[in-house]
User: Fold this.
Amino acid sequence: MAKTHVTMRVNGAEVEGLVEPRTLLVHFIRENLQMTGTHIGCDTTHCGACTVDLNGMSVKSCTVLAVQAEGAEISTIEGMANADGTLSALQEGFRMMHGLQCGFCTPGMIVRAHRLLQENTSPTEEEIRFGIAGNLCRCTGYQNIVRAIQYAAAKINGVEFQEAAE
Amino acid sequence: MNDMTPTREEREARLEGMGCKRKRVEDVRFTQGKGNYVDDVKLPGMLHGDFVRSPHAHARIKSINTEKALKIPGVLAVLTAETLKTVNLAWMPTLAGDVQMVLADGKVLFQNQEVAFVVATDRYTADDGINAVEVEYEPLPPLVDPFKSMNSDAQILREDIKDKKDGAHGPRKHPNHIFEWTVGDKDLTDAAFKKADVTIKELISYHRVHPSPLETCQCVCSFDKVKGELTIYGTFQAPHVIRTVVALIAKLPEQKIHVISPDIGGGFGNKVGAYPGYICAAVATIVTGKSVKWVEDRMENLTTTSFARDYHMTTEIAATKEGKVTGLRVHVLADHGAFDACADPSKWPAGFFNIVTGSYDFPAAHLTVDGVYTNKAPGGVAYRCSFRVTEAAYCIERGMDILAQKLGMDPAELRLKNFIKPEQFPYHSALGWEYDSGDYATAMKKAMETTQYAALRREQAAKREAFKRGETREIMGIGVSFFTEIVGAGPSKNCDILGIAMFDSCEIRMHPTGTGIARMGSKSQGQGHETTWAQIIATEIGIPADNIMVEEGNTDTAPYGLGTYGSRSTPVAGAAIAMAARKIKAKAQMIAAYKLEVHEDDLEWDIDGFRVKGLPEKFLGMKDICWIAYNSPPPGLEPGLEAVSYYDPPNMTYPFGAYICVMDIEVDTGVYKVRRFYALDDCGTRINPMIIEGQVHGGLTEAFAIAMGQEIHYDNEGNVLGGSFMDFFLPTAVETPHWETDFTVTPSPHHPIGAKGVGESPNVGGVPAFSNAVNDAFSFLGATHIQMPHDFWRNWKAAKQLGLIKDAAFAA
Assistant:
């Protein structure tokens, strides 16, 4: 099948590649760019493991063609750490609050939560739960993911993280 | 002592040993997208394999034409059953002693069954190849209802064994019959029923579901023709078992097979079995000489690689009028699908279902299980479950509620009246198990106090009156569940997989600088073994957990183990760790005695080293002992500090718990709201409370999904209706309730550190708690048992059947 040349910025770096028109963005990221942090968990756009940030929006990269991302600004899990290589507030929050187990949904969850906290700097529990409803987790039951995002929000806002009483 | 000397508390804290909420070491890579899962493995020149699958549930294959597919550039091979026959691999043995088609041989027996395997340069081209393979089918009538499997006029599904009178587990009564399994004393049980004041009988079904971990099943097979070595990266919960099975069926020398389970994205039982994809990828790499990757998509995962449950349990309980249970009789019709690929220890065709007497002191019980074939996907895996324990717990916990309703007793009171008492342990159940330890009444009472159970019942009584007066359309249910699990398979005297005894193992190798590596026969899929195993070692030998690296999943380096499923890792591998650590400690004590110039008996262990009794200043720490062990061991003692332990457990462990669910249901819509869910778990000694709590949250969420909506349903034609996340319910953060966790601690008396399994308890106990809440809500309106799953529509249907829906538009 004839291939098309695409260019985009991923985690701040200019990247390019030859793809078939049908190549999904997630496969371009995983196979061509060999950035395997973005995962695939379903074929119906339900699970959100493949979530990336595309032009300032959370997008499921299994439902976008690579050619549609021509010229786009993309962030993946590999671009989430602080500039000095330390864990970001969200990454730290997931670790501190035990917001992950098998780790398979985690990249999509963190990338989604990253955008959520840009959209709403101090979300309530309900807003967080609604905000991550496009990302499925089979291990944690979400409760600690909610706490992880609250932890990160508090840290970013410079306030002390207060755990809600059970 | 000067100011710099750490206190005892500081030395303890520095270890981050057992009981500590240690943060997970795995998370540093997982939060940065640096995990290494199977689909991340990319070998030079790697090909992709994918399946042509049957659209029919039951059909004869008249022809398979691969010509057009092979003409597509990039399609290198198409394997069919005929190809596999040349290497004698068209069929493979199952864990349950049956055989299963790897690729359809003459006919297909379930929808989406593997028919041909297309190998191509990339996954897109493989898909083109699939679409170009032409298969001509002659549809046959499907057999979907397991209750019709043994009818005299039933279509015979398995022509390959139609004349076999005996299966792997004894005589077969019908060509579609797999086994009959009987446990208990029939005469004693019949007598108990004859004498009973009160009896109940109910068909309690536990529907077909699927574990659906977020990462599907997948593998990369790579054959080195020169060396004759086969390397398999795979999503295997039991890598060593896979190696041995491959050696046996592919006739390859076992030392030339390297099985690697890298990071696994959840398992929940799905990744225990051997699937056609693994065999086809292995054959394809041998045929093509190139590495071959097979990654199933979600639809393939949900519809082909295993299912769980599908048990239809006719349950009878006999009791006195005061509510003392006297007998239990259960018959199970087990739908195994087209092949018996049930993942149980080989001698147990229905797993440990004979734990069905639960937490109660039944003087007599009798159990029969009939396994049958249908035109459905094979499987029967332990979905977050220790081999059919979830089914058993659901059966008895629903049964006890039905009995309570008939007796007019409170369900919690009935349970308290019938619990096995602490002084009865070790307790021998009527169906053959020896329960190790338990204090059920304490746990139940703590749960009732914390949730203010009595007040909840008063509120419910008031709401019921209000409902009857027409003041509300909302009903309230309180679901009580008290489960006893049986985990830690298992003692070699009764547990094996295809003859491989179910021990587990640990090898600890200490390094001269006071750090070490522990290699395990277990394999984490998210349970956090790299974190918790190091905690056990830290407490046992006084080396900080941070200085112990835990490695799992490489069969070349790990000691042989049976893997992780059925909550067996802490009971079996966890014990092996403690025993290996104690061997290290014993040698360390010899070294310390020599260096401190005392007899070994004059030493006492003190957190992180040995101290001479009565002379507190004479102390040698483990870190220093590690150096001495290599560089200046006592004369006559060989250098080094390492140990291996293979642990064959003397018994299973029996975790238990008390769960209470409070739910409100709007009868006109069936919409429910889980108001409160309280889970008290007793898993004995707690290694990492943070991880235990996380496991409970996750298991409860899976239980919630199963009880309230998840189902792999088939229509009358054998079409699978739950084949994607569109139709198969996985709760999001919005639907998932808030979980309250609690605990008691009753250590296992036979386990080296007193620990029991916990990962599966919340699924085992959670499902009956939800289902009992729904049934409890409807019980005052005349319902006895409403089948799961309890989604909005079915709740509404239940209300309608009870005559509660008055709207003319919905009138019957």
Q: What stands out?
A: Residues 143-157 of chain A form the longest helix (15 residues). Chain A touches chain B through 61 residues (CB under 8 Å). The CA atoms of residues 27 and 61 of chain A lie 8 Å apart.
